[in-house]
Amino acid sequence: KALSTLPLTTLKLSSLRDQGCDPFAQTQRSKLQHRRARINQQINKEMRMRAGAENLFKATSNHKVKETVALELSYVNSNLQLLKEELEELNSCVDPRLHVFTLFPPLPQAMRTPSRNEAGLELLMEYYNQLYFLDNRFFPPNKNLGVFFHWYDSLTGVPSHQRALAFEKGSVLFNIGALHTQIGARQDRTTLQGVDRAIDAFQKAAGAFNYLKENFSNAPSLDMSTASLNMLVRLMIAQVQECVFEKVTLTSAQNDFFTQLQIAQEAARVEEVYSLVHQTMTQAHVKDYVPFSWATMVHVKSEHFKALSHYYAALALCDSPSVSDADLPEHEKAFVQFHVTVPEGPSLHLVLQDQEERRKLGKAHLKKAIMRHEEAMRIHSLCKILRKMDILQEVLSFTHKHSLSKYSEIDHEEDFFETGDAPDIHPKTNQRPEIKSPNFSQVKVTDIFHRLGPLSVFSAKNKWHPARRVHLARGENGFGLTLRGDSPVLIAGVIPGGCASEAGLKEGDYIVSVNSEDCKWSKHAEVVQLMKSVGEEGVDIGVVTLQSSDGQNKLAEINPSWVMLCLFGILWVVESGNNKAWGRFHLRPKGMSTLQTLVNLC
Asked: Does the keyword Transmembrane belong to this entry (predicted)?
């Protein structure tokens, strides 16, 4: 019976601040967020005081000052512990529902209360994909709009806001990863199907946090910093490895020598990854941010699975019969790779064939297992939050009693030898975790701003003149223009003196409507058919023009070879200091008789 996985129980809480809405309205939820923020500010204040006191304690040589500072330090540490416990209690009371004033009417329910299942994930992914269209349509690459995206830190409750849409996308992606962890923790891992679903969910959570770490920088909140995301990725990988251990215990029908060795090595692997997570949580940039209950739980799991690895090693040695000469090479090969270091005492050959030597080594493993179980229970008792989790206490007591029972079973009254120190188990797994990056393409969405036209043309990257309506009559030679392209159709040429030219149409205009019928998405043939079907009264055409199109058309009329000659000419004239030297160039166009005109053109 293994420990349950550790879920991320709080999602990032979000709201979009814009004109006409107040995200700081004094609802019960916002009051709770303000309380979390105030407590976190008090914690930061106490930490600064502690740092100053520690520096003073190191710097002073006055014993009286040292005593005063030591007393103050004990007072500050006590306050810090109380504040952190109060913050954790508030975090446990937070309903992990999102609170958002969303830009998209079809998706408010998804962002306020996403269901903890695949449907909720699909809605969050749909919102994330819509942000792609929003970014390209309305957010210029070199200008920030006056929209603030406001989010709360997932653990401290401290509000953060930015004008960059990337902050909104990163926060939604964080929620996607957090939602995957909740789905994984809710699975019934007593069945093989439930374990597989949990493994898949935690791997996707690791992929979401890893994708966020690699593609989002300069985070204004601590939970989206590189150090925090790195810790979360490792935590998800550790939970995947724990689920793999549970899968092995479920699928191992036989309790033979090789099966018990495999389970012991799987447990050692789980201990290894949780130890890595604990080291990450105790680093300087993460230690003061991660809740104490999280770090304690990870430490407890590390000790617990180390105990389990030694327990299953003892079962393999004590419950399996002696090895025959025919099976000895196979057993010896498996056992030589089992320990990190070679056990002290007799050779492996003798240990495998002598039941008494196997009992002695098994007893050493059980002794170490009991010590690790007791250490896990001691660490567990230090955390107020974990002491409230009855199921956790039951699991620790259950495994501890099993190790004690097995030790009493193999312990003999006549044992006068001193039990040696068993070497650690070499970690090994048959299923390494996989970081599954989010697959945004699997959720198909339709741009809710579809009617504005194709994104490749009608986007924030292009600047447009105001749309205008032109009445175009048919002359003897037709409309006097040529069309090109699809969605939208472009006016490729205008005949001088023709009907289109007199109506004010220009080369480079885009046709967006014909007789008030929207044709931004129309094909070339469809627009031509609409224009041909009109009578003598003519047709009303809606057109838009890119602001840069006039300059582009002028430059397009200039011969590139002539431009190069002009540039060389400018350099020669400037170096010679003689403006009259321009007359030596016979390729100058009409109307350009001075150097200043040429410079203005270039």
From this structure: no
CA distance 174 to 297: 22
Which amino acid belongs to residue 207? G
Which among 68, 182, 168, 34 has a CA at the least distance from the CA of 117? 182
**Torsion sign, CA atoms 297, 302, 303, 309:** positive
Mapping DSSP to helix (H, G, I), strand (E, B) and coil, where does residue 18 land?
coil
- Report the sign of the C-alpha dihedral through residues 265, 269, 270, 272, in that order: positive
Residue 18's region, left for phi above 0, alpha for psi from -120 to 50, else beta, is beta
Contacts for 105 with CB less than 8 Å, ≥ 6 apart: none
The answer to whether 348 and 332 are in contact (CB under 8 A) is yes
Rounded to a whole number, what is the distance in angstroms from the first to the last CA of the chain?
79
Distance CA 598, CA 365 (A): 91
Q: Are 439 and 180 in contact (CB under 8 A)?
A: no
- Sheet containing strand 148-152, strands side by side: 13-17, 148-152, 159-162
pLDDT value, residue 10: 39
Q: Do residues 233 and 435 lie in contact, with contact meaning Cβ atoms separated by under 8 Å?
A: yes
Segments in 60-116 forming alpha helices (H): 63-93, 108-112
Alpha-carbon separation of residue 424 from 272, 277, 318, 466 (angstroms): 11, 19, 17, 75
Return the pLDDT at 574.
44
Alpha carbon distance 331, 325 (integer Å): 10
Listed residue (87, 76, 134, 142) closest to 107, CA to CA: 134
CA 376 – CA 159 distance, rounded (Å): 36
Lowest mean pLDDT among 23-37, 462-476, 572-586: 572-586
13-17 and 539-544: which strand pairing? Answer: unpaired
State the Cα–Cα distance between residues 31 and 152, nearest whole angstrom.
Answer: 13
Other Cβ atoms within 10 Å of 280 Cβ, number:
22
Residue 554 has phi, psi (to 5 degrees) of -65, -45
Residue 181 has pLDDT above 80, yes or no: yes
3-state secondary structure of 201: helix
- Name the more confident of 158 and 182: 182
The closest of 158, 45, 185 to 91, measured between CA atoms, is 158
Residue 554's alpha-carbon distances to 307, 350, 495, 501, in angstroms, are: 79, 93, 17, 17
Alpha-carbon Rg for the chain in angstroms: 36
Is 299:235 a contact under the CB 8 Å cutoff? no
Query: CA-CA distances (angstroms) from residue 217 to 211, 229, 289, 358, 398?
Result: 11, 11, 19, 55, 45
pLDDT at 321 over 60: yes
- Tell me the backbone φ, ψ of residue 507, rounded to 5 degrees: -65, 130
